[in-house]
C-alpha cells in the first residue's frame, strides 16, 4: 500500500520502489481493494525482497513496518532514512468487514503521512527553483 500511495502523492518528484525484508510473494488482495477505493491501482505491483535493490543508487529509504528499520540494509549512496511504523493489516482478524476496516485504517494512516511527506518534497523543489 505504501508504494502505491507514495507513487500517487510524489511519483512526479521521486522514483518509488517497494521491497521487504520478508516479502509475502504476493500483493494482498485486500490492499488492492482498499487502494482501488481511493483510485490507486496496485494490481500489477509485485512483492520484492529488499536485496533486489542493493546494486542501485538509493538516496532515500523509508521503512513502514514495525521491525523493518532494523532489518533494512544501508544502500550505496543512501542519504536519507525515515521510519514510520504502521501496523500490518494482513494480521487483522475478524469478519470480512472488520478486516477490511483495518486495511482502510492503515491505508488512511499511510496516506496522511505520505501526502505530508510529498508536500514537503514539493515545497523543497519549489524553493530550489
TrEMBL record:
Highest taxon, organism lineage: Eukaryota
SMART domains assigned to the protein according to its UniProt record, in alphabetical order: LMWPc (SM00226)
UniProt domain Phosphotyrosine protein phosphatase I: residue ranges: 1-120
Keyword Transmembrane helix attributed: no
GO biological process, one term: response to arsenic-containing substance
UniProt-listed SUPFAM superfamilies: Phosphotyrosine protein phosphatases I
Name of this protein: Phosphotyrosine protein phosphatase I domain-containing protein
Organism, scientific name: Trichoglossum hirsutum
Organism lineage: Eukaryota, Fungi, Dikarya, Ascomycota, Pezizomycotina
Amino acid at each position: 500500500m505504501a508504494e502505491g500511495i507514495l507513487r500517487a502523492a510524489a511519483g512526479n518528484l521521486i522514483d518509488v520502489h517497494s521491497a521487504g525484508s520478508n516479502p509475502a510473494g504476493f500483493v494482498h488482495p485486500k490492499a488492492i481493494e482498499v487502494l482501488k477505493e481511493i483510485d490507486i491501482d496496485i494490481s500489477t505491483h509485485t512483492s520484492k525482497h529488499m536485496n533486489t535493490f542493493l546494486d542501485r543508487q538509493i538516496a532515500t529509504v523509508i521503512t513502514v513496518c514495525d521491525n523493518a528499520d532494523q532489518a533494512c540494509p544501508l544502500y550505496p549512496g543512501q542519504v536519507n532514512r525515515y521510519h514510520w511504523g504502521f501496523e500490518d493489516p494482513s494480521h487483522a482478524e475478524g469478519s470480512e468487514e472488520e478486516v477490511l476496516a483495518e486495511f482502510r485504517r492503515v491505508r488512511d494512516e499511510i496516506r496522511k503521512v505520505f501526502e505530508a511527506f510529498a508536500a514537503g518534497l514539493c515545497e523543497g523543489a519549489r524553493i530550489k527553483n
